[in-house]
Design brief:
Strand content: under 5%
Number of domains: 1
Radius of gyration: 20 Å
Structural class: mainly alpha
Distance between the termini: 51 Å
Number of helices: 4
Shape: elongated
Largest sheet: none
Length: about 130
């Protein structure tokens, strides 16, 4: 049951984040920011779909890397302190931290790409 719930949470998380990414990229603010960083192609519906698909693939990668059912090393005498909803919220926050790390990696890539484009333009190489 726990594995099913975990899989369902990853599915819902990937769908929700995919929709958020699409809406942010196709918004007026998203279009202007993407235009400034040199990637206006992501502001189109097709580009936003592709970015959303890549983020979903990243979440699936994290899911595959996350440890599955583990056998406890020693049987516990009692449950950890606190209500169950606290543990669920803690798990959800950990998943959001991973998502944030993935988004940070994407933004770092875009920033480095833009810096490389500027360097290449300074030396006279045409960049499309």
């Amino acid at each position: 049951m726990r594995g099913l719930l975990r899989g369902l949470m990853f599915l819902v998380l990937s769908l929700a984040i995919g929709q958020i990414i699409k809406r942010v990229l196709t918004s007026r603010v998203g279009r202007s920011v993407l235009g400034r960083v040199g990637h206006p192609e992501f502001a189109t519906l097709e580009g936003a779909e592709e970015a959303s698909k890549r983020v979903k693939q990243g979440i699936e990668l994290v899911r595959s890397l996350a440890p599955g059912e583990q056998k406890p090393e020693a049987p516990r005498e009692h449950e950890p302190a606190g209500p169950r909803w606290v543990r669920v919220v803690r798990d959800a926050s950990e998943m959001l931290l991973v998502t944030g790390a993935l988004l940070k990696a994407v933004t770092d890539f875009v920033r480095e790409d833009e810096q490389l484009r500027r360097r290449l333009q300074r030396i006279g190489v045409r960049v499309e």
